[in-house]
């Protein structure tokens, strides 16, 4: 029985491989664990009371005026990690501060109540935005795209075989593939990533054991 010949990769390349597929994956795992235990931030009672008294009649449910569902906004509160729930609150604060909500033909809150609502709601929103940035950072950790995985493996292992097409389709939420907030990492993604790394390593070992074969790099 012949002994198997093993050609070790240079330590620097193993370090890069671990950095790309270990550290990034680890950060995403930690972030996912935090998100799993985080809860939506409920709306303070005084904020909800003002909106119920002054705004809910015109914006009650999906059929609300201008398509603005205030009941849904109150139910959602503020997200523990994602920022997609912030814009409705910014719009509410701006419209109330400008005197556009409630509309002029509707019953108006007195000036003191209006100013207190704007001030307290702004402080509540800013407090949770700052807390979110301290916990997760302004830029979220994200996984590599399919093309980035392929090019990273090409650079690390000195190969040029197609790999991106073997990874799951990413979709393009909001036209981009690099927005951490919309990326997913299921067991299927993980399995395909591991399979692609195996294919890349197989190709690297094949080339190491067959140095006379031509290898063209773009």
Helical residues, percent: 40-55%
Total DSSP E strands? 0
Q: List the uncertain runs.
A: 1-7, 23-39
Can you summarize the main beta sheet? Answer: none
Shape: elongated
Element-by-element helix/strand order: HHHHHHH
Which structural class matches the secondary elements? mainly alpha
The radius of gyration computed from the alpha-carbon positions, rounded to a whole number of angstroms, is 26 Å
| Count of discrete alpha- or pi-helical segments spanning 4 or more residues | 7
Distance from N terminus to C terminus (CA atoms, Å) equals 40 Å
Instruction: Please tell me the total number of domains.
Output: 2
Mean of residue pLDDT values: 78
What portion of the residues fall into strands of 2 or more residues? under 5%
Topology:
Elements: H1 11-37, H2 45-54, H3 70-76, H4 86-97, H5 111-136, H6 146-157, H7 187-209
Helix pairs in contact: 1-6, 4-5
From the structure above, extract its key features.
0% strand; 54% helix; 7 helices; Cyt_c_Planctomycete-type; DUF1587; mainly alpha; 218 residues
Descriptive notes:
The protein is mainly α. The chain has two domains: about 100 residues, no CATH class; about 90 residues, no CATH class. Helices cover about 55% and strands about 0% of the residues. The chain is elongated. InterPro entries: Cyt_c_Planctomycete-type (IPR011429), DUF1587 (IPR013036).
């Amino acid at each position: 029985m012949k002994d198997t010949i093993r050609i070790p990769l240079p330590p620097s390349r193993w370090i890069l491989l671990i950095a790309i597929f270990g550290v990034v994956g680890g950060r995403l795992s930690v972030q996912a664990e935090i998100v799993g235990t985080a809860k939506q931030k409920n709306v303070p009672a005084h904020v909800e009371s003002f909106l119920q008294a002054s705004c809910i009649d015109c914006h009650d449910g999906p059929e609300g005026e201008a398509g603005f569902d205030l009941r849904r906004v109150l139910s959602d509160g503020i997200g523990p990690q994602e920022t997609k729930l912030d814009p409705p609150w910014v719009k509410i604060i701006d419209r109330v501060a400008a005197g556009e909500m409630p509309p002029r033909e509707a019953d108006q809150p007195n000036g003191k109540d209006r100013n207190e609502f704007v001030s307290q709601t702004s402080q509540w929103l800013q407090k949770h935005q700052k807390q979110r940035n301290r916990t997760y950072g302004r830029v979220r950790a994200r996984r590599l795209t399919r093309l980035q995985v392929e090019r990273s493996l090409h650079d690390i292992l000195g190969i040029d075989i197609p790999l991106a097409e073997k990874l799951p389709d990413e979709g393009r939420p909001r036209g981009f593939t690099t927005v951490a907030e919309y990326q997913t990492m299921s067991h299927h993604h993980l399995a395909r990533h591991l399979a692609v790394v195996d294919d890349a390593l197989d190709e690297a070992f094949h080339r190491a054991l067959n140095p006379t074969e031509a290898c063209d790099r773009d």
